[in-house]
Amino acid sequence: MNYKTIELQILQLEESFSKSRSNIYSDQNKESHFKELHDLFISIKKSDLKSFLLGDLQNHFHILNYIFKGLEYLDNSTLNIIPFEIISCLKHALNDWVKKDNIILVTSLSNKVEGFYFEVAFSEEYFIQINNYIGALYNISITHRLIRICLPKVLSRDYLSSVVLYHELGHFIDSELNISKRLLANEHSVSLENASNIEQKFYHHTAEYFADLFAAQYVNDSLSIYLNHISNGSVDSLTHPNTNKRIEVVSDFLLSKPNDEITNINNALMISGNEIFKKRHQTIDSTKSDFKNLIPQSFKSKEELHSVFKLGWDCWNNSDTNFLKEFKLRQKYQIINNLIEKSISNFEVVQKWNENK
Amino acid sequence: MERKQIITSNGANIKPTKSAMSKKIAKFLGLNKDGILFKDEINKLISKGELTIVPLLEEDQIGEISIDLRIGTDFLAQQQGRDAFIDTTNDQITSRPIKSHFRETRRRTGETLLLNPSQPILFSTLEYIKLPSDVYGVLTLRSSYSRLGLTLSSIIQPGYCGCASIEVTNNGSTPIKIMSGSRFAQLRLIRIKRNSNYFNSERKYNCQVRPIASKANEDKELNQLKKFLNPNS
Amino acid sequence: MFLAQSSNTIESQAPFYKNILEGIIRGEKDVNSESIDNAIKEAKEIANGNKTIFSIDNDSYYLVSTILLNYKAKLIELNKIEISTYQDVLKILK
User: Fold this and answer.
1) How many whole angstroms separate alpha carbon C90 and alpha carbon C71?
2) CB nearest A338 (choices: B54, B57, B208)
3) Residue B18: is its pLDDT beyond 80?
4) Min Cα separation C27/chain A (Å)
5) Domain that holds residue C75
6) ipTM of this model?
């Protein structure tokens, strides 16, 4: 690597910035993040690359990649069809676990039907290191970390399947708190980079249980129901435990039954000074819910809010016999999704309205 | 209360019957069996759960004879599609859907949107409404918007469930900026003599929470009409 | 078919730490050098059994755990952090 590498990156980034300049962000944080990235870029452009040592050139390579990634995330977030209802639910869950307020959630709509994931380009540790470096060199700091939530465009208003995002948020929290990594290190005295196949399997399986349990705190067994629909009877793989095992762990959690996976993870969470997994939703009986009257469900708390997904699934699963029985299949699907969306939207609007009175 | 005498057209003096008097009092108090609903009746229906308007951010949205409704968060703006015209006569899977002539966009409550001149915009009310099966609604603009060159007039069927659909076109020559969440329309509620089951007939739209592009081309009678020209098709 | 996995595109977290270590080895200790010293000390505490892997702060988990898991034997013997220590850690990060 030499300074020409960085020069090329700078020119490519220049193109990227010229396309992004016209973006309008209604979120003040996104606006200021864009400006910070741009200020950093300008400072790098002005610096004397030829005088940099190899280490500094390598660091600048990473910093410019960081800026690229940031622009990529921000560009996608100007989409004007963001499903902010699901995002608001995820934010409530995120706030239970990450107390730092330097996170910006951006949404990206994927063309892939299975495209549900959280993408975080850089950990908090990396973020601190970048800031230390650019602070010393350019007297600049980046205030926020960007986290991208990806979901399939065709399912962006499908709230039954969006329970997957709680699972994905669980993976993000795991990587933030390094729980599965700590358990791997504790059990096998290795890091993920040096792990054998068996050790990797341990890590990945632990991570899946973590994410499933994380989701179950909020959406009860909705994820298990969805898993059953899409991957029933699967076997253990390197990356995932078999579906039945996953469902069993969640079931034990919800019934407060003893389970080694739950115990190990909760111990790890507790010893490292974090919250532990517990029920963070208030179940609503579908036979007594507002949905029965074809109106949005009202919620008294965010614990009730999270249970709207479980409520939706209960209505769907019993739609041959419950209040939806006279409707056609497509209508049932639309009614449930519409009512979930409006229930969440009403809760958020009323909360914000009353806060700002 | 003393009943006043009424002089009929042939000069006879009669006293109104007790039931006629009750009807007048009832009408005054908004308790009439049919006709426009007044504030008290509206509030009574809401408290009994027979009428739903959620979220109702301010109680004063319920006026004496109407309810203020707010702009929602989802919009469909008509745009020039690839086809030269919008085809309401064809429902083939291979033909371009009507919704391709509309661009979908969302705004958070508090964000703004421009209504361009001559561009039809569809959106839904922020409020989700469920009407009793013997009440229908008439939706009009609040006067502060109608005097800007915007027009709206639509009916909400008895028993309707969902956010009310608003179709509005800026007939002026200047774009108008509106804000999601602001009071935009007025709903008058009228009671009819008999119940109607909204879900009785197959409905194209139900429990909608966002605007849906026209489904004119899904009209079941189109095939029948086509047979007028081609009986063997 | 499985649910979509979390796509974690975490870059190698090493580059900035490597840069600090190279600076220390060249004799340019600055305020960021403290983070390396603290990480080595913490890893030593865990290696000696005085603390556990669960006590590492998230803000330095990668550095401390990498040193711990790749340098444990030497950490136990370590009395004072020397230039050679920094060189060893740099090798591990590379």
Assistant:
1) 11
2) B208
3) no
4) 15
5) 2-93
6) 0.88
